[in-house]
Amino acid sequence: MVTKNTLTKLALSALLTLTPLVSDAQAPSATPPPGKTTLDPLDPFDIFSFDELSPSTSDNDKTADELVRDAGRLLSTDRPLDARTKLLKAIQKDPKAYRAYYLLAGYYIVHVGHYRLALKYIKRAEALFEEQHGKPPYASQTLQMEHSNLIYYLSQVRLNLDNYQGALDALDDYYALGYRGEWYAGSRAWILMKLGRIPEAIKVARQGILAGAEEGRTLNMLGILLSMNDQPQESLEVFRQAIANELSMGREGQPATPLNNAGEVFKELFEDEKAESTFLRATSMPDGCEHVLPSLNLTLLYIDQLKNEAAISTMDSFQRCIAQFPLRNNEEHSALVNLARGRVDLHTGNVARAIQRFETALQGTQWFGKIGTNQNDLVVAASISLGQALLRQNNILSLTPTESWSEWTAQKKLATSNSLRAWWLFRRARQILIDDLNDVEDLTIRNTDSLLEYPTLGETLAGLSRSSLRRRLAKQREIDHRPAAAPFYEAYAAESERNILSSSASNAAFDSVIQHSRDGTDGLLRTHAILRRMAALGQDSDTYREFAYRIFYTAAPELRNYGLRLPVSFDSTGAPWGLRSKIESGPFLVVSGARAVCSIAPASNTTPDKISLRFTCPGQASKNKIVEGTSTTEAVNKLSDALFREEIRNVVTN
Amino acid sequence: MTNNAIQKRTIPWYRTILAFRSLGVIVAIATLQALEPLGTSPIVIMVAGILGVILSSQVAHSRLTNLGFTLTLFTGWLASASIFWTLNALFSGITPHFFSLDRLSLHWHSCLLATTITATMTWIFWRARSAITIEALILVAISILTFAGHRDFHFDRPKIINSLAWRAGVPHLAMLLLIGTTSLAFALVYLYIASQAVRPSVEEGRVHVAKSKRRWISTVLVLGFLGGIVYATQATLYTHYNSVMLARVANGVGMGDSMGVSPLSFQSALGSTNQPAGLIRLEGDYSDNPFSPMLYLRESALSQFSGKEMVFSGRAFDTDLPVVSPRDTFTGKEDVDLGPRTPLIQSMYLLADHDSAFAVDYPLSIVQLKNPNPSRFKSSYRAYSSAPAFKLSDLSTQEVGDPRWPPEITAHYLQQHADKRYKELALEITKEASTPVEKVLAITNYLSRTAIYTLTPNHTVSQNEDPVAPFLFGDHRGYCVHFAHAITYMLRALNIPARIGTGYLTDLSQAKDGHILLRMSDRHAWAEVYIKGAGWVPFDVQPDQVESHADTQVDSKLLEELMGNLEPGEEILPPETLHGESGVEEPMATWIPSRRTLLVIFFTILVICVGIKIVLRHGWRVATTPRSRIRWGYISVASRLRDLGITRHFGETRSQFSQRIDQQPLEPLTQLALLASYSRSPELSHDSIRKDIMGAHAALDKLPRHRRAHAVISTASITHLLGGGAW
């Protein structure tokens, strides 16, 4: 990866090869040349012919080499646009000035990310270089240095354009010509990884470390490779070294990257506590919010554990931190932030807000590719989450009594459009999963490259044919021996059975998931399995009642989200006419007092002409609520919201 | 006509209806694909949909009943599901990929769904008389849902309207009306054709097709009447809305610099839009920008108080403004007393029409640039600015106003509002401030704290009332226009020279390679104060409370596409530079035909039509055999009759037709045709045939001149031929 520092080094190396200059770089004058009124923007030889502010020296009087030297200085002092102007001016002076071309290539790689244009510049620079100095190899050390820089750029640009073989070919040329660089091993290992040649990449990275390659980057690379090669413990050891190395560099170090990578490995190993502490450490580092990934990983981990408040707090911290950098563009992370926040909203019963956030996340995909993450991952994840949110909204609507026919009609209209949209979104997600993501390659639970919500993924996978999914799951179990992953695969199989109405197989599988999933850490998976199991049970069964209260105490919003009712007793003393039927059409199941833990009763009115309801749950003081409404419907709906919607403070709204 | 297998080609409008419905399918699929990727190739889905139209039309003219059709569809789906189920059961373990069959199934069912929907709708069309009404209602419902946003001046929604409008270089209101007119015209023509078409009916196991009755004159009258209504409505709509649209879509900041007039609007600016307005390319770093990361681009300034609002004062004042069209050149004078300043060069490529050039602070010079892509950019120019490089914190102790100003100019910038409340409030807010600049900051901070930014303040203000008072002394709900006015009035009440700057406010953090995409939603008005030694400095409100605002995200794809238009030319990077490289395909640009292309297409069609007419009229002249000469001769006369509006009725024989026409010009040719058809060796000479053909035409030449003239331009014979009709 070409960084700003690398570019500066290369710019300075270009300067070393140039003759001494007569003056320092100066800013351009604001006056146009006399007599020039029409300029051709497609002809860069015409457009920068302005005078220098200094009366003694202007860009017009400088040679191409002097301008390149000026540009090099400007690049090293973080004035890229001025540098770009100088370089184009240099080309105007001397169209064969290959140094100007390759510094422009560097500018477009580092400052703009316009790789296609960078490739054009670097190819032109290479052609001019060979035109002037002949074909390699070169005897002169200066020429060797320049040529090696050209090849380095070429490989990096090709890598960014996903031409991995081309990038590797460039590195082969580099090595064959006897050039050596600290970055070589890390780059080669990365490209080999992209080509799927993991063992070879590991070998290259290891050799690089022994040969004194750029340590931080190469170690990080090696750690990733070992993790991909199913060597998590070795990978963690390498990340430890990488972290130590970055920390030893003081302010220059970037420890958040290897810390995040190590956290991902812990997460994949289902060592949740270690993963959490590693991500927390990554986010607390000075470079902890330079990228959204550590915060995102931590948030998603908390969501899996049903720690919604901690999840929101993590996102808040990230957004507060990123606000320190006004020049940072939100486009690089807004989609991910909305996805994560949307999921928290969904699991806390704020479904309408979740839908908005998922829609924003989906719309933001066009800017997402620039940070190198697979855009399809985001589209699939956001589509699935949005589909789930729409279905949850339908469930909530089905448990929301209405005041009038018009309200009822509006509710049905929304439910119909939600169902259609959810069907389409799930279908589209499945299509991308099998078409663009190679037969659901992200099925490995907690694959950190994917943004899927694994505990509830089965809901989408169930739409695939049962035989294909069974084969895919069987294959996955063959290669994934992590015990904690097994309940997830079982849950997917259960969803598939449920989809074809094979209730006994489905129930057995969900029971197994409930029994074998880990306490606390697999909170969302277990909740999902219990809710699915409840849906298959009769509402009057004791198991249903037991499950309902279990969910109500741990993840109350999910009960209503899944369209299930909470058994309650109802004290009709002093109740207005029709209250009981309204309660029953809400998310409550009225049962006899002995069978229910919680109860609903009319409360003594605090406001005249209003209906008050009191919800009490012995031993659960936080669940006790009193609401009032102008009608029985409003009172029931308010009680429903009070119990099944959690409002977690949202410090940062976007 | 009664037949078990109806010849579809003889059913009036049959093929035209198929063509119309197929076109509808294409438009619908293309629109859906534009709104959300369908996952399967839209072309394939279109073909499947068209297949549904054709197959359904075929079976609709058979003896198949409604129940039979429903069962057929159901069976089709059942068969499809069974096949995939069987294939899954038998072959799922054999295929190299786990989900090969699921993949195929998803694509297949997309097509099947398209076929089912179009087939069902087409079946209903042919079999139910009220189908056309239902279709019309569906069309209306879709239109209402799609364009519902326009009630709030969101003329650019859905987004495709915005894209089309700016690419075609027309206001999006015009584009909206164009789309509406086209849809309406399509619907009207379709409704007409559909009403003309005859429906088959199944009685006693046989299928019947009734004769059609055509009422040309009434149809033409109705169509003309409807067209007139459409035209009048659109003209009224355009006239009514266009005047307010620009200000509405531009955050209340319109364009124009006529003396005594304000381009600002106090109406609700809910129509704010992301319509691209221009592309700026900074030719150097502007690291000294005191407003970083924001960049103010001044287009005009309003310094004269009209008694009701701030207006443009003409060229006597505000001499720092270039007040030139973007297509003009300007050379100004640098004010050497202003500092610190830094030279800043900006190349502007305008995507929407602008009355005035704009630039950072005040430009010293504006020169024209060659337009790199006239189909994209309206015009382009380069502005050389002397941009502010001071720190805002350094200004706090500076004096305001320019000691070089003559009294009348100072008085001009201190014109005050008659309403004393402005002064009272200003004094109240600034009671703790000592210097003028501190007072300015106290006022902007006060509004930042208390004002609620909304694009829909919805104040009710009559023609002669102060539109700012309901904001400042009322609910504090407003947008930049209200803020800028309120600050200016209050500052002038404190004897601080102030004016309103208008133009664009953009966020440099959304720039790429020094390129900034300006949108209409970036249009802005702000208060400015003249500070000694610094010039006119913007003082803007940054409201803590935001109720509604325009979309803020820049379309990065569009920015990159536009940047591609400015890329270095072949002089720097020859086309062969990337020879042999992979993964460097340029993104496909949307093709919008130019006027020239459209003219070429139009003339090509015209030439083809004329050619067809010539062949129809005079083809008999080159026929070699008597039989072919008779056939072509008959076509010659029949096609001319069709152009004159005289057509053979459905089910009418050629003999009956020739008998029915006045003066029976076709009779000899019909007899000849019958003779040629049914006689083994008819004695026919070229001369006699020629005589009959010429005779028939001579009879038609006796018709009134206007009818003959109409026949010359009529396309009836051409459409009949292309529709596969028999002569």
Please explain how this structure is put together:
Chain A is mainly α and about 650 residues long. Among the domains of chain A are: about 1-180, Tetratricopeptide repeat domain (Serine Threonine Protein Phosphatase 5, Tetratricopeptide repeat, Alpha Horseshoe), CATH 1.25.40.10; about 565-645, Double Stranded RNA Binding Domain (2-Layer Sandwich). In chain A, about 60% of the residues lie in helices and about 5% in strands. Mean pLDDT of chain A is about 85; it is low at about 20-55 and about 365-370. With about 725 residues, chain B is of the alpha+beta class. Chain B has three domains: about 1-245, no CATH class; about 275-565, no CATH class; about 600-720, no CATH class. Chain B has helices at about 15-35, 40-60, 65-90, 100-125, 130-145, 160-170, 170-195, 215-250, 405-415, 420-430, 435-450, 470-475, 480-495, 555-565, 595-620, 625-645, 655-660, 665-680, 685-700, 705-715, 715-720; strands at about 1-5, 200-205, 205-210, 275-280, 295-300, 305, 310, 330, 340-350, 360, 365-370, 380-390, 450-455, 475-480, 500-505, 515-520, 525-530, 535-540, 545. Chain B has a six-stranded antiparallel β-sheet with strand order 8-11-12-9-4-16, covered by helices on one side. Classes of the chains: A mainly alpha (about 650), B alpha+beta (about 725). At the A-B interface, strand 1, helix 2, helix 4, helix 5 and helix 6 of A face helix 3, helix 4, strand 9, strand 11 and strand 12 of B.
Number of helices of chain A: 28
E-strand count of chain B = 19
Strand content of chain B: 5-15%
First CA to last CA of chain B: what distance? 18 Å
| Cα-atom radius of gyration of chain B | 36 Å
List the uncertain runs of chain B.
1-6
Biggest sheet of chain A, strands in spatial order? Answer: 3-2-4-5-6
Straight-line distance between termini of chain A: 31 Å
Main-sheet strand order of chain B equals 8-11-12-9-4-16
From the spread of the alpha carbons, the general shape of chain B counts as elongated
By oligomeric state, this entry counts as heterodimer
Total number of strands of chain A: 6
Instruction: Identify the CATH homologous superfamily of the domain at 1-180 in chain A.
Output: Tetratricopeptide repeat domain
Helix count from the secondary structure assignment of chain B: 21
Overall mean pLDDT score of chain B?
82
Mean pLDDT of chain A: 84
